[in-house]
Specification:
- The complex is a heterodimer.
- Chain A is α/β, with parallel strands linked by helices.
- Helix content of chain A is about 35%, strand content about 20%.
- Chain A contains eleven helices and ten strands.
- Chain A has a six-stranded mixed sheet with strand order 6-7-8-3-9-10, with helices on both faces. Chain A has a four-stranded antiparallel sheet with strand order 2-1-4-5, covered by helices on one side.
- In chain A, helix 4 crosses helix 5 (about 145-155) and helix 5 (about 145-155) runs parallel beside helix 6.
- The longest helix of chain A is centred in the middle third of the chain and has 16 residues, at about 175-190.
- Chain A starts with a strand and ends with a helix.
- Chain B is α+β, with helices and mostly antiparallel strands.
- Helix content of chain B is about 55%, strand content about 20%.
- In chain B, the strands form two sheets. Chain B has a six-stranded mixed barrel with strand order 2-3-10-5-7-6.
- In chain B, helix 2 crosses helix 12 (about 325-360), helix 4 (about 95-100) crosses helix 9 (about 240-255) and helix 10 (about 265-310) packs antiparallel against helix 12 (about 325-360).
- Chain B is elongated and about 100 Å long.
- Classes of the chains: A alpha/beta, B alpha+beta.
């Protein structure tokens, strides 16, 4: 569904070019849940911005559902974001003076739906995250976990093909984190395509596949041989990921099938990444 | 539909930033108030003058001291300007008599002379305009009497020391009590009150603070020797120009050819008033224009601050699908709503002020002409759009990826 090829991105500091993404190749199937893990400044948010069509790479190509999206006009890009991508941000990005329902409705304001339909869909999305009873409450009065649930509802309201989450648990306590990860695991079960950026290894485990980004280069992430998922998270993780957390070197059929050389690196989880070798990762 | 959503979003945001919205609105309110109130006032003033001059009669010609109207613009000097004052008058009672005698088209020639004096009744006294005139005066001005009668020919011939009080003079000396038959002392001379005028408003004239007596009485009891004005009534409006020339010939001959007076025809006065009003209106619109400019800058500053403060929101809106024109419309709509709301309130306040003014000055009508409302709204729409454009464009240029990082 998503194919990023040879993508580079840099920032300029005077005459010096500082690379942020360096020849990144990434392929994500429809319905796949991919987590991207990496330290601060590693380029994971930039990757997410490019995937979300908020930013453009310096070089490379980006094909979304068969459509080359980098050549789209800004108006088409806005429509694309509006109808096909849902965003979840670390800082929630709710409009504090609006109530919960209005916040969720925001993307629909830029569609051609009637007010009644907008309200219906917003309530439906809120019901999915268990926030229906707080529709009239102002966003500013919600707890961190509640805010993030509203933000997820906003991301879902347009029924997008791709959900991008930037550190969705980064500002939450453990209980709230688990609640949010629970929602993400439900979304995964619904077959949603999700890319979640995080620096939290535990959160990354619930994905089908985990990538590591470091110095602008992307590779499969190794959770470590035999490293168990924390008890709370193990239940949330996908059956294969949960299994891999306890079964060392548990290369699944799927992982093997997607790796171009047909062999997963030792220690990769079943939900783990395709091989680190970018040349080989190209189809 | 989308436009309606932009306005709805704009209203929402304005409510969120009430304080700033209010500040931006104040400037527009004051500008609109200034424009609407002054234009309406000028309009009403002109209408009132026109109405009153027409009511006073288009058959009237007034002889006034001074040479202002005899000179072209640019030929004025200080003495020309000062010549308009009563002190410099050379007009006389005899001028009126001569014109009436020699010009057949004149049906009435009424001189008026006046000086400030004190009127006493018992322990009470008040400042008045001690005015001398002739019995035809009340016909010229269509005066209405509240009590008694106006001066008559017998009063004039016998120098009967009769006096007619203006409404305010009567009130000051007698309160609610009847005045007719009582004796009032002016300049040490006792006058018998024969009548009291009903209150009368005529712009440029004061009837209420006067006491009218026979013309020769004022000349005899004061050091005033000349008429301040002579009012001529012409038999037929169509002959006003011709009769004016004849009047001019008579007075000029009596004054040995010296043009130290001017003759003002009613429609000429209207023309002068109209020119003056156009000039004042242009100045008013200019001042209001500057005021709109300042309030526009105010709106722009507030909107720029708002755009700055809402950078993250703009980024979020763009991230979730707002197109550039939708962001532009939202912020333009905000500027426009502030402008229009300010202007609307300004119009309302100026309407209220006009009513208040009308309460105190009955002579001025209190209408708010349609064109004033249109000008005011048009100015505010233009101001809102022009000065809202820069902040709106700034909002359009916000990059979502930068805005979402914005602290």
């Amino acid at each position: 569904m998503i194919a990023l090829q040879s993508v580079t991105k840099h920032i300029t500091d005077g005459r010096r070019k500082i690379p942020i993404l360096d020849d990144v190749n990434l392929f994500i199937d429809k319905g796949e849940f991919v987590s991207v893990i990496g330290p601060s400044g590693s380029g994971k948010s930039t990757l997410l911005n490019i995937l979300g069509l908020l930013d453009k790479p310096a070089t490379g190509s980006y094909v979304f559902a068969g459509e080359s999206v980098l050549s789209l006009s800004s108006g088409r890009l806005a429509a694309f974001r509006n109808q096909r991508i849902g965003f979840v941000f670390q800082m929630f990005m709710l409009l504090p003076r609006m109530n919960v329902l209005e916040n969720v409705e925001l993307p629909l304001l830029y569609s051609s739906l009637s007010r009644r339909e907008r309200r219906r869909r917003s309530k439906e999305a809120l019901a999915q995250v268990g926030m229906l009873e707080k529709t009239g409450q102002r966003a500013i009065h919600l707890s961190g976990g509640e805010k993030q649930r509203v933000a997820i509802a906003r991301a879902l309201v347009n029924n997008p093909e791709l959900i991008l989450a930037d550190e969705p648990t980064g500002n939450l306590d453990d209980d709230a984190k688990h609640a949010i990860l629970h929602i993400f695991s439900q979304l995964r079960r619904q077959g949603r395509t999700i890319v979640m950026v995080t620096h939290d290894v535990e959160s990354a485990r619930i994905a089908d596949r985990c990538l590591r980004i470091h110095g602008g280069r992307i590779s499969a992430y190794d959770f470590g041989v035999g490293s168990p998922a924390p008890a709370g998270l193990a239940a949330l993780a996908s059956p294969s990921a949960a299994a891999s957390a306890t079964v060392p070197d548990g290369a699944s059929d799927r992982a093997a099938a997607t790796a171009s050389d047909g062999s997963a690196a030792p220690g990769l989880t079943s939900a783990g990444a395709r091989p680190d070798d970018r040349e080989e990762a190209r189809p | 539909m989308r436009l309606a959503r932009s306005f709805s979003a704009a209203l929402h945001s304005m409510w969120d930033y009430k304080g700033r919205t209010f500040l931006a609105l104040i400037g527009m309110l004051v500008s609109s108030l200034l424009l609407a109130f002054l234009l309406a006032l000028l309009h009403n003033f002109q209408t009132s003058i026109e109405g009153q001059v027409q009511g006073f009669g288009l058959r009237q010609i007034v002889a006034m001291p001074g040479r202002v109207l005899n000179r072209k613009i640019g030929q004025f000097d200080l003495s020309t300007l000062l010549s308009i004052t009563t002190l410099n008058s050379t007009l006389t009672y005899q001028d009126a008599v001569n014109v009436k005698k020699r010009v057949p088209g004149v049906v009435a020639a009424v001189p008026q002379t006046e000086i400030v004096a004190s009127a006493h009744y018992g322990q009470k006294s008040t400042e008045i305009l001690y005015t001398g005139t002739t019995p035809a005066f009340d016909k010229v001005f269509r005066l209405t009497l509240a009590e008694g009668r106006w001066l008559d020919q017998t009063d004039l011939q016998k120098m009967a020391q009769s006096i007619v009080l203006g409404a305010q003079t009567k009130q000051a000396l007698f309160g609610k009590a009847d005045a007719v038959g009582k004796t009032v002392v002016i300049k040490g001379v006792p006058f018998r009150v024969v009548g009291v005028l009903a209150p009368k408003e005529l712009i440029g004239f004061n009837f209420d603070e006067r006491a009218y007596t026979e013309y020769p009485m004022v000349i005899d009891t004061t050091n005033v020797r000349h008429a301040s004005m002579i009012f001529f009534t012409v038999s037929n409006h169509a002959h006003v120009d011709a009769v004016s020339g004849q009047i001019d010939a008579v007075i000029s001959s009596d004054h040995h050819g010296t043009k130290d007076y001017m003759l003002v025809k009613a429609d000429e006065a209207l023309h002068i008033v109209s020119i003056l009003m156009k000039l004042v209106t242009a100045v008013t619109v200019g001042i209001a224009g500057v005021s709109f400019l300042v309030s526009g800058i105010g709106i722009m500053n507030v909107m720029l601050l708002v755009v700055n403060e809402r950078t993250r929101e703009i980024g979020l809106r763009k991230a979730v699908g707002a197109k550039s024109y939708q962001v532009l419309l939202q912020f333009l709509a905000e500027a426009l709503i502030i402008s229009l709301a300010g202007s609307g309130i300004g119009l309302g306040v100026s309407y209220g002020l006009l009513k208040l003014l009308g309460y105190y000055f009955a002579a001025i009508s209190t209408q708010m002409p349609g064109y004033v409302v249109e000008y005011s709204l048009l100015f505010s729409i233009i101001t809102g759009l022009v000065f809202g454009l820069a902040p709106a464009l700034k909002a359009v240029r916000v990059q979502p990826v930068d805005a979402l990082r914005y602290e």
